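Consider one such protein record:
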Amino acid sequence: MTERYGYDLEPVAISDVLSFVESRQEVHGNIPKVNLSMYGDAGKWHVDAAVSYKGREGRDEHQTFLLKSYKQLWRAEKYVKELAEEHGFSYEGLNPNLTNEDMYLQYQKRQQAKDTFTNDLKNEMTQHSTELQEVIETQLVGDENDQSFLTKKEVEQLISVHFNRIEKGLGHLVESME
């Protein structure tokens, strides 16, 4: 049981949320919006669904459901992104106001590591692409008679070196991520 907003929430199945959305639509005649979010508390990452709709007399109504809790952040992120894609819900990301400070720092470090990894990968690929393009332009294009300066075997070796370099670069980046 997780305490949030001053009351206890029990995890519910996504089918319960979908049934609630359908019932609100039937009763009040409008389509509820479902916003997914996460927060970290007590060593777990929680995934919530907040349903917003127009209730009686046109008042804004809200109902929050706890969907799942995970010990690993990446599992919670994967689950919430799959739900958002499958059901067309919006995903607001991590709610820092509800997240324990230590867990929020953990989340920020993970995001920073992801960003660094992505930037390093992009830089490595750009650099390697530039170098490969230079080799192709100077060695493969050939002379004015369209005769290549490289044999088929040399081209195959160049490509092999190219893919080995990519594999090593990716391996290094994955190691640094871990």
Q: What stands out?
A: The chain has four helices and six strands.
